[in-house]
Structure formats: structure tokens, C-alpha cells
Specification:
Radius of gyration: 19 Å
Strand content: under 5%
Order of helices and strands: HHHH
Structural class: mainly alpha
């Protein structure tokens, strides 16, 4: 069973993790920001995005292109 808690950006994550791990019945505490919405500027600065753009350029040059690549769409929309 899982429990999902949404936190504000300024939440004291280390304190919450320590507190939750002391409660009887809690097996583990994992912190994830997978649902975080990233700005376009943040996405453009990532190495993964740069590699995907380079891959797309190479595919266009070699004639192996479609209007979009699945890897690019997965990266932009965080699909895995």
C-alpha cells in the first residue's frame, strides 16, 4: 500500500522523512519529484534534451526522420 503526500517547495523533507520513518507500520519513506512541472527553460538546459536534439538533427541529415521522435516526446512529457 502507498500513501501520497504533496509537499510545498519549502517543506522540510529531511525532518518529514525522519518523522515518518519512526511511525510503526511504515516500511520505507521515498521522496520523489516525478510530478513536478518543469519550465521550458529547465527542460532546454538538461543534458538529456541536448542529446535528443542532436539525435534528431542527425536523423534529419541522414533522411531518417519523422515529424517528431518518440524519445523527444517522452522526454518533454516525462513518459517512460
Amino acid at each position: 500500500m502507498e500513501l501520497t503526500i504533496q509537499l510545498e517547495d519549502n517543506a522540510d523533507i529531511s525532518f518529514l522523512k525522519k518523522m515518518l520513518s519512526q511511525i510503526k507500520g511504515i516500511k520505507s519513506v521515498d521522496i520523489s519529484d516525478d510530478d513536478k512541472t518543469h519550465s521550458w527553460e529547465e527542460i532546454e538546459k538538461t543534458e538529456e534534451f541536448k542529446k535528443l536534439i542532436e539525435q534528431s538533427r542527425n536523423q534529419i541529415k541522414s533522411g531518417q526522420f519523422v515529424e517528431h521522435s518518440e524519445e523527444l516526446m517522452d522526454s518533454i512529457f516525462q513518459r517512460k
